[in-house]
């Protein structure tokens, strides 16, 4: 099932309009830095077929004046204060709430991906959050969690056990910004990485581009 870029934008704009006009109660709002934490969706397109295959769900803060605060300005702070896990759970639930009854309109094999840091693996509820997300869509929508290379993940017994559990649940793993500095190849040993996102500085290299075309 192919989607034109205009169709993708039109459909995802429904979500933005939903977020703009959603009547919120105090229980619905996760506030931080004088703004509301919101999910920010970026469509994932198959470059060979121009098909919509998924969407990356990013975290943003929207202030009352409409200003959008990028993650570079708050992610480290929100993690240090121990609120990152709750914020991630919040945006996962927002995606469930909006797309639960629209899953049949998305192409077969569609998935949502969320950025996960080392802090999430210290939380016992990560596996439950992922299971709840998968169950909400009756397994029709896939779940990918992106391991942030800039967030050093310690592959201890708890982390490895969680990775194995998530894999059994059908969760796939992606490595974000590979080559951004740390290039921790050890991730490939302990996690079944199915998606690798190269750092954009590598994509600018003609040599890297040529090698990718040869693969």
UniProtKB/TrEMBL annotation:
Pfam families: EAL. PROSITE patterns: EAL. InterPro entries: Cyclic-di-GMP_PDE-like, EAL_dom, EAL_sf. Residues 19-215 form the EAL domain. One of its GO terms (molecular function) is cyclic-guanylate-specific phosphodiesterase activity. CDD domains: EAL (cd01948). PANTHER family: CYCLIC DI-GMP PHOSPHODIESTERASE PDEF (PTHR33121), CYCLIC DI-GMP PHOSPHODIESTERASE PDEL (PTHR33121:SF80). This is EAL domain-containing protein. The lineage of its organism: Bacteria, Pseudomonadati, Pseudomonadota, Gammaproteobacteria, Enterobacterales.
